Amino acid sequence: MINDLWYELQGDYYIPCLILPAEKEQPIGLWGQRHLQYLKEYRRITYLNLLTSGRLNAYLADIDKQTEEMFFRLVEQMKQAQGIMEQLKAENALEWTGRLNNIRACAREIVERKIIFA
Fold it and tell me: What is the mean pLDDT of the chain?
């Protein structure tokens, strides 16, 4: 053991045995998983820095929480702005569903641009 590292002989060379720091496991939802995929593909250095520092799981859990809150807030604001109430649901469920799906798609696009793919 040199410099508080363990080394293992591989052929003619000693290779350090590196262990990632322990990190508290937190559940990561859909938004966190999507951001993780984005980091792996387009922000490799950021991903590796978070992974090796032991902060990746906490970071993704925080991103997931922020995105979820923003998504639901946007959906509610858009519903109010467009006047989509429970009365419409009772009168014309098909139209209510279509309009709500449109609002969700818009909110999804906004949170993806502002948080997930940023």
Answer: 90
